[in-house]
Amino acid sequence: MLRMAPTDRSDPIRLLAVRETPLSLDEVFAAVGDDAAGGTTLFVGTVRDHDGHSGATVTGLSYSAHPSAEQELRRVAEKVAADFPVRALAAVHRVGDLRVGDLAVIVAVSGPHRGEAFAASRRLIDDLKNEVPIWKHQTFDDGTEEWVGC
Predict the structure, then answer these.
(1) CA distances from 107 to 4, 48, 91, 123 (A)
(2) N or C: which end of the chain has fewer CB within 10 A?
(3) Nearest to 90 by CA among 67, 124, 133, 39
(4) What are 52-89's pLDDT values in tens digits?
(5) Which alpha helices (DSSP H) does 84-144 contain, by range?
C-alpha cells in the first residue's frame, strides 16, 4: 500500500493509495482541502449488482493489482497535476474481495474553479482506469466469470 500525504502543501499530490481496507470519503475529501480552491470534485466508483455491458447479475467481485500499480498511479497523478492547474488531488483504489455497494475507487481534485476541477477529475479517473494495472474479476449468478481490464 502506498500512502502519500506530504507535509509540503505545495505538492498537489496529497494522497495516493492502493489498499485492501475500506475506502473513506472523509479521508479523501480532507486530503484535497485547500483554501485557494474554488471547486472540489469527488468521484466515487461503487460495486454494482450487474455487469455494465452484459447486464448479468454480479454475485462476487475481486480486484487485483500488479506490483507496479502504485508507481503507475503516481505517474498518472503527476501527469494530471502537470496538465491542469489543480490545487490538490487524491486517488485511492481498493483491491481484494468486495461486495455490492462497496467503494472501489475514489478520486478527488480541488482547483481554482469548478471547470478545472471537473476536467482534472475526469482525466484522473479515466487515466487511472485505463493505465494503472488493476484488474477486476467478476462472478455471475449463472456460474460464469470474467476478468475486466486485463
Answers:
(1) 14, 18, 4, 10
(2) C
(3) 124
(4) 778 889 988 999 999 999 999 999 999 999 999 999 99
(5) 114-131
| 42, three cell numbers | 469527488
| C-beta separation of 20 from 103 below 8 A | no
The three three-digit cell numbers of residue 99, written as one number: 461486495
Q: Are 66 and 132 in contact (CB under 8 A)?
A: no
Q: Give the amino acid at 96.
A: G
What would the pLDDT profile of 100-116 be if each residue is shown by its tens digit? 999 999 999 999 999 99
Q: Based on the number of CB atoms within 10 Å of its own CB, is 123 exposed (0-12), middle (13-18) or buried (19 or more)? A: middle
* Dist CA 102 CA 22 (whole Å): 8
| DSSP structure class, residue 66 | -
The pLDDT > 90 percentage for the chain reads: 84
Rounded distance, CA 114 to CA 124, Å?
Answer: 15
d(CA 106, CA 24): 8
The Cα–Cα gap between 64 and 78 comes to 23
Question: Which cell numbers hold the place of 39?
Answer: 471547486
